[in-house]
Every structure is written in C-alpha cells, then in structure tokens.
Sequence to fold (487 residues):
Amino acid sequence: FSCAAAHVQRNPAYSVLNSDDVSYFKSILGESGVVQDEDRVAVSNVDWMGKYKGSSQLLLLPKSTAEVSKILSYCNSRRLAVVPQGGNTGLVGGSVPVYDEVNGILTCEAGCVLENLSSFVENKGFIMPLDLGAKGSCHIGGNISTNAGGLRFIRYGSLHGSVLGLEVVLSDGTVLDMLTTLRKDNTGYDLKHLFIGSEGSLGIVTKVAILTPAKLPSTNVAFLSCNDYISCQVWIGGSFLGSVALYLHVYVILKIKLLLAARRCLGEILSAFEFMDRHCINLAMKYLEGVHNPLPASPYNFYVLIETTGSDESYDKAKLEAFLLRSMEDGLVADGVIAQDISQASNFWRIREGISEASVKVGAVYKYDLSIPVEKLYDIVEEMRNRVGDMGQVLGYGHLGDGNLHLNILSTKYSDKMLAQIEPFVYEWTSKQRGSISAEHGLGLMKAEKIHYSKSSEAVQLMASIKKLLDPNSILNPYKVLPQSVL
Ligand code: FAD
Ligand code: MLT
Ligand code: ZN
Fold:
C-alpha cells in the first residue's frame, strides 16, 4: 500500500501470487469471477478519495458463502493476503434479500447495495436503520464491517443494536453461522459483535439479518442557521464579552442549547440533527451542481439540518414549526426554513450529504472523524484553522446529535508541511478530551498505528490476541486496524 502521506512495506511472510493460484480460483469461480484486467483491478486498488493505492494483482468476485469459504481456505494454506471489499466507499484507506414482515427483519447477502435494500424494504413499509451519503455504492457487508453510523444514528442507534445475526467466513474457510433473527439471545458470548466494525480483519461477512424500523408517513426537514458571535452577544448579555475564546465558548453553548431544545421539544419524532459550518455551505454551493442555499439572506456561521419522522402529518409539522418559532424567539436560531415539498427537502439533504463529494474536488483532503464531548466539539475546528492558516481550508460538519465531528482540511495537494501542522496534534487533542479518533469510519490503513490515542495498551493487546486466534496467518486485510508492532 502507498498513499500521499505514508508507504507500507510489504510483509515478506506473504506468498506471491502465481499462475497455479489463478488457475485454482478459476476452477472455483469460473473465468468471469477472476478479474486480471489491469484497468479493472486498478479501480479496486484505489479508495474513494484517490488517496490510498494498493497493489493487489487479482480481483475475485465470489457469489456464494461456499465460494468465499474455498477462497479463504486456499489463501490461508498458501498464506496469500486478502482484502475484503464491498462498495469501496470507505474513507480510511449478489444479493437475495428475504423479509419477515411481521417482525420487520431483513435477511440478505453482504453484497447488497444499501440503496437497493432501502427500496426493497420501503416497498414493504419499513426503512433501513441506517442511511449514508454513499448509499448508492456501499454494500451492507461493508456497512457492518465498518459499523457505519450515518444520518439516522440519532434515532435508531448503532448497528450493534440493529444487527440480529451474521454469517461470517473465517480466515481458514470455516463458515460461522450466527444468522439468528431472534431479538433476544443470551446464550454465551455474542460473537457477531466482534465482526461489526472489525473492518474485514477478523472474517468476511457473507450474510446479514437486520432489524428494520417501520416506515412512518410524515417526514419534515428544516434548515436552520445559527447567529454569528455578535448575535450571541445579545443572547448572553453584553457584560460577558471580552475575548475571542469566550465568544467561541458562548457560541458552542448556543449550539448545544439548540440540540437540547430539539431533543426536548421534538422528542420521539427527531430523526436527524446534522450540522455544518459556513465553509461547508460555501464549498457545496461552489462544487455541487443544482443545489442552492436555502437561507441566502445573510452569511451565517453555522447551519443545522433537522429532520423529524412521525406518524401524524399535521401534528408533526405543527411541532416542528413551534420548535422553530420558539428557537428563534429564544435567540438560538437566526433564520430557518421548513421544506415545503420533496424537492426542497432533497436540496437540504443534498447540501449536507454532498460535503464529502465537494471536498474531494478541491484536490487533497485530510479527513478526521472524531467523537468529542459536544461542548468541545467545535474548538478543534477553530484551533486547526489557526494552525493551518492560509495553507488550507478547514471544514467542520457532522452528526452533532451523536457528538461526531467530521474535520476536513482541504488543500490543492498533499504535502508533508501540511500534515505536520495537523498530526499528531489532532490525535493528541482528541485523546486529551478522552474522545475517539475514529467515531464511525474505522481505522483502516490511515489510523492503524494511531489506535493508542483512543484505546489502552491492554485493550489493544486483547484485540491483537483475538486477531491471532481468528486469523493466525494474518491473511485478512493486512496492515489495517491494528499496529504492526502488536501482531
Ligand atoms: P468498503 O469501502 O469496500 O470497505 C470498508 C471496510 O470494510 C474495509 O476494511 C473492507 O475490507 C471491509 N469490508 C467490506 N466488505 C466486507 C465484508 N463483506 N466482510 C468483511 N469486511 C468487509 N460512513 C459512515 O459511517 N457514516 C456516513 O455518514 C458515511 N457517509 C459517507 C458518504 C460518502 C459520500 C462516502 C464516500 C463515504 C461515507 N461513509 C460513511 C464511509 C463509507 O461509506 C462507509 O464506511 C461504508 O460502510 C463502507 O461500505 P463499503 O461497502 O463501501 O465498504
Ligand atoms: C458524512 O457524514 O458526510 C460522512 O461520514 C462522510 C464524510 O465524513 O465526509
Ligand atoms: Zn459521517
């Protein structure tokens, strides 16, 4: 693997692929399941951002659990390294769904694209418990393996809660059937949790059983702006003012107040609370086609997208309108608009979901995905802006309702000078707050060596023991997740 900022030395313990290996794979998968075409393989060797480049020589397209099992069993015996890949939308370096309509449980293969699953269950009156900007490409197997969070997390929680069962193929080809659809099952250790979020390092997920919430008839989306520091002054009272730091602090309190108010006033119908700063809006307006700023009257510092989902159209809308009015009266919100139709609602969501797409158009993106106590969440963005100066553009956005900040630093090209301004500062700062350096994207290649900023050495040692137990030849997703020194 190599990337603009790091180069990984190949571990000589792995075998080198030869023509006998290719013949064996063809005997299992047929000609069409074994891709050697350099251009096609090259696509799978580069991540979504174009930042990390692998050097795999072969792409295998298994269609069944049995095929995955045979591949792994062979690779393990030959000590050939394997990188599991779903939709390849990860940001850190076939498909037959079955449905239980009474209990709302979907059972499907790992290669199902999230958006296709959403359409499938929506036709039956349910929704997927997760939604993300990459839905058109990412696979449910990839979602499980990264424990993707996304835009509905505030309402439906983590995949650790929604996933009821998994089928996983271990590194030696053993098929581990944990594909239960039971809501309650306390018989021994709940092993599926080991594979949720383990980024393909412990096994390959081949089937998934997942709980899907009912699709509710009324959805409303509001786009709000929060005042700048001068308006905060009015709210908090002039005598408190004095320093920039205090302004910032006051501002953050204001934002948290809005989140608390939303939780209290909207309660059970709140289904998304996303935020972005004005730099994100400017970027979205510049690079995303067909979107427009819903609140163009004035350039505000922050924008919040709130979605409600409930069962009573007029009651839900009245609730959101009352919340918006009250928040404006209380000075929490400067301006706001509720989408009047689907096209307005899509425009609001397109802005929020399109930030990552707009970011990569600038050239180089240094991407950080942090969990930080909400009251400190924006401090790191401001601190980073000071550190980076005019070398780059710093964006802060994310899932504020979950305490999850996406910090993106944009530049026209990758440089060591820029990286030195960002790292290790960003990790040290997050560690000091007892935050997480990977809230929802995983560690991947990018942060495998940084895990200690968020996990104790005892925890990392235990993870290494589990890895050695399940994948003694370390063939699964080499160089990712855990530091090389513990393996
Ligand atoms: P891939 O990128 O192919 O793989 C990701 C990891 O999972 C790799 O380590 C891979 O080895 C492993 N893997 C894949 N499939 C399997 C399998 N079947 N078994 C075992 N291991 C496997 N993430 C969020 O959490 N929240 C978001 O809101 C979000 N929004 C995004 C928006 C955009 C525009 C983009 C590009 C990405 C976004 N992501 C988000 C990141 C990414 O989409 C998720 O991590 C997604 O879950 C990855 O799925 P994938 O199928 O593309 O996996
Ligand atoms: C998001 O919330 O938009 C995604 O996690 C992607 C990103 O971090 O850019
Ligand atoms: Zn996200």
Observations:
- The mean pLDDT is 92.
- The pocket of zinc ion (ligand 3) is lined by residues 398-399, 406, 440 (CB under 6 Å).
- The domain at 2-78 is CATH 3.30.43.10 (Uridine Diphospho-n-acetylenolpyruvylglucosamine Reductase; domain 2).
